[in-house]
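Why show two proteins at once? Because comparison is the fastest way to build intuition. When a single record is shown, students tend to memorize it. When two are placed side by side, the eye starts asking what differs. So, the first record is below.
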Amino acid sequence: METNNTNWGQSVAGVVIRDGKVLLARHTYGNGKGLLIIPGGYVNIGETPEDALKREFMEETGIQVEPDGIIGIRFNMHDWYIVFRASYISGKEKSDNDENSEVVWMNTDEALTRDDVPELTKILIRSALSSNGLTSHPYQSNTKHAPYSLWCL
């Protein structure tokens, strides 16, 4: 995990459901140690949340994804966390043997009942199953603060 370009106040995660199964990774550190959670991580400086999601999934799981909609946002005075519903594009699941010890496709019904899947992950799986969320809209800005992402109903 590279840290010299990390924006510690911005993070993303994604729920990918394919053929009735959700992609989960068993975390190896922190509060999530030993738990099966949705993949994600911090945004790099100068990176969009969408690109961060794609990078994090590839690094941590070997799976290429495409963000489809925003299904959750958590924020406070110091940081924010955006959760996307994302589509599987390609790849074979594999652990990065660093931030996670295993990556699995698990039946969504099973994931929602297991003790080793935390409540936040269950809430986000339910959200992905029941909602289209906010969707991406093309937006070109003429300000110096680009790139922008625009997600709305």
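Second record. Ask yourself what differs from the first in the token line.
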Amino acid sequence: MRTLLHLWLSAPCRIVRVALAEKALEASLKVEKVWERRPEFLKLSPAGEVPVLIEPDGTTLTDAWVINEYLDEVYPEPSLLGDDPVARAETRRLLVWFDRRFAHEVTENLAGEKIMKRFLGLGEPDSDAIRAGRANIHYHLDYIAYLAEQRNWLAGERFGLADIAAGAHLSVVDYIGDVPWDEHPAAKDWYARIKSRPSFRPLLADQIPGVPPPRHYADLDF
């Protein structure tokens, strides 16, 4: 059995979880409290970060990007990167957009400040960062709406890693109730399709002790 070391509200971990489910690859999920800096964990991930995927043969991979490239190469059906070089390039472009730009401008400013600082013992949330995250998310939701209106899915006609990455980051921010869905109906409609996928539903069942999500979080119809 493969094992995935993860954290509940880590968007990179959620991306890998959905990718595994889309490829029908079973994995045992193990929460890794990275702030504890376990020596055994640091041997697997010298950077001290999750996700970490341990394959049944002992192969160990770190970093969501590396893991997803590996999964699509070793388990190619269904392809989540795309069927041709142009499609794969567009998927990778959007992966950079969501897993770097969205993460930096939105996820870290909202979930990072409100949730992760608490677990990492890094002090009180930065109100300026939270305000920036709440302002920045509108631009990203507009971009998601634009892509979803031009294409069937964000990177093209097929569901893939671009949708998974965007959905994972939004699910983290939505857990703390900071996604203004009613102001962005096209993005909301796209996300409703993401929420309804069987691969995504386990994410919506996650519960952080003492920090419950809003009532709409796991509602497939909002």
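One difference worth noting in the second protein: The domain at 2-74 is CATH 3.40.30.10 (Glutaredoxin).
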